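Structure ticket #2291
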Amino acid sequence: MSGRIGRLIRIGQWLNGDGFADFEHAFVYVGDGELVEAEPGGARLGPLTAYRGQPIRWSTDRFPLTEEQRHAVVAAARGFIGVPYSAADYFALAAHRFHLPIGPLIKAYVADSRHMICSQLVDRCYQDAGVHLFGDGRWPGYVTPADLAALLSP
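Resolution: structure written out below.
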């Protein structure tokens, strides 16, 4: 992700212990050249062509899905269109990383408010479809774009 938002996410991931990862964004491909992505204005449906020429790591390379699972991931993603994006998600990540005592309160707020950052949306769509991308049982709110990129690395 370019621009100021991309730089802020990169710094946030560094503070979270991910280093300066090359991936600052994540989305769910829903077919027909469209994707669902969480953005500062809320989750939206957009064109895949917006990322032409950008490095993309596809989950299907690492997590082959059944047709039923694929439909469930897409349905979940479409169901999150319009869900707000919030800085509270980044505070939850930071509180978790630094073991701050307010972490559980922020986690509860984020879970109740349905706010999602891009990587949280991706992980949640897969979980809603019964596919757990991470074997450590982490909450989707603790997933960063760098976590997804590392998981999908060849």
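Closing remark: Residues 3-15 form the longest helix (13 residues).
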